[in-house]
Amino acid sequence: MATDLAAIVANIEAFYDFGGKTVIHVGAGGGQFIGYAARARGVLAVDPDPGAVERLRTAIRTQGLEERIVVVEADFLTLTDRADVVLFEFCLHEIADPAAALRHAGTLAPAALVVDPAPGSRWAWCCGEEDKVRRSWAAAERTRVRKRASFQGMQRFHDYAELFAKAGGLGEPTLSRIAAFRDRLDFTIDMPYQMALLAARE
Asked: Could you read off the pLDDT of 64-92 as tens digits, one per residue?
């Protein structure tokens, strides 16, 4: 499985200037998008998943960002730290109450940057997350949106076994939805995504 991570990172950095900023990075586990931290003043990376946090720590060491990033294994809603911006990395739709998460972001920073699957994403549908995605963007729309952008991404798979390893653990309806790819080889699934810079507080 491959996603064009470099393109996503480039798009995030072109959309928002992290230079000299302090950042609370929500859903940072795995460390796939932390390269921007080299230009930030400091990053507090938070994720509640122990396995994801361990991968994040490895990525930080690999990229030599130990002096820039502090890692916290916690629920974002428990944080009281302050920053210039709260970055939600493909996770707002996974939070049980995205509106509450955005309100909490407003107590921590004047701005929030949301990067999340776009409504209508085929990949989100395959993962059974289409309702979550609609709910998260509806919550974002209820704040003051400073700017937004849409991008076309995709997930690439060599075969069904690779797709199953990525998404099979999600159960139904995902298993039924990905069954259509059972006999496919070297296929892609569209993964459009959006970014929005929100005025988390006035």
From this structure: 999 999 999 999 999 999 999 999 999 99
Domains of the chain: 2-119+130-154+192-199 (3.40.50.150)
DSSP the chain: -EE-HHHHHHHHHHHS--TT-EEEEET-TT-TTGGGGGTSSEEEEEES-HHHHHHHHHHHHHTT-TTTEEEEES-GGG-----SEEEEES-GGGSS-HHHHHHHHHHH-SEEEEEEEPTT-HHHHHTT-HHHHHHHHHHHHTSEEEEEEEE--EEEEEEHHHHHHHHGGG-TTHHHHHGGGTT-EEEEEE--EEEEEEES--
